[in-house]
Design goal:
By secondary structure, the protein is α+β, with helices and mostly antiparallel strands. Helices cover 49% and strands 18% of the residues. It has one domain. The chain is flat, with a radius of gyration of 19 Å. The N and C termini lie far apart (53 Å).
C-alpha cells in the first residue's frame, strides 16, 4: 500500500471552507479571517492575534518555477526575502509618517502555505478594515507588480541553460 502525504481535495476544501477567494489575472488571493471568538479568548494579546491573512497564489509564476525544478517553499522564501527588502528600504527612505501609511506596523509578510507563494498577516481584528484598504489601495497596485517582476527576472536567470562548451571537430 502506498501512502500519499499530499492532502486530498476534500481535506483542502475543508481547510479553506470559511475562506473567501479573489481572482486576478496573475492568480488568486485567499482571505482567511480569524474567528472573533478565538480572538476573544486571547484578549490579553489581541493586538498580536491574527485578525486576517491574505494568501497570494501566483499561479503562472508558481508553474514556471515548478517547471524549472524550484519548489513552492523555495519560491516562497524568495518572495518573502524580496518583500522584506522592500520593507527595509521603506524604513530607511521614508519619514515615520510615510512608513505608517505605506507599511503599517500591524502588517507582516510570511511564507506561503501549501497553495500560496506568500502571505500578508494582519495582527488584531480591529486592524482588518484598514489592512484590507492597504492591500487593495497600495499593496496590489504598487508593490505586487514589483514582486512579480522581480520573481520573473529570477526565473529567467535560473531558466537560462548553461552555455555549451565549444566543440572542436
Amino acid at each position: 500500500m502506498n501512502f500519499d502525504p499530499s492532502p486530498t481535495i476534500a481535506e483542502i476544501e475543508a481547510e479553506y471552507a470559511d475562506c473567501r477567494g479573489y481572482e486576478f489575472e496573475w492568480g488568486q488571493i485567499v482571505e482567511d479571517l480569524t474567528d472573533p471568538g478565538e480572538c476573544a479568548e486571547a484578549r490579553a494579546e489581541a493586538h498580536l492575534y491574527p485578525g486576517a491573512s491574505w494568501h497570494f497564489v501566483l499561479t503562472e509564476l508558481h508553474a514556471k518555477f515548478l517547471d524549472a525544478g524550484i519548489t513552492l517553499d523555495r519560491l516562497s522564501e524568495l518572495a518573502v526575502r524580496m518583500l522584506e527588502a522592500i520593507a527595509e528600504d521603506a524604513h530607511s527612505e521614508l519619514s515615520a509618517e510615510e512608513r505608517r501609511e505605506r507599511l503599517p506596523d500591524y502588517i507582516r509578510f510570511c511564507s506561503g502555505n501549501d497553495l500560496s507563494v506568500f502571505e500578508i498577516w494582519v495582527s488584531g481584528l480591529d486592524n482588518v478594515p484598514a489592512a484590507r484598504r492597504w492591500v487593495d489601495g497600495f499593496f496590489i497596485p504598487d508593490v505586487l507588480p514589483l514582486i512579480i517582476s522581480r520573481l520573473r527576472a529570477e526565473h529567467r536567470m535560473i531558466s537560462v541553460p548553461p552555455p555549451k562548451p565549444n566543440q572542436l571537430h
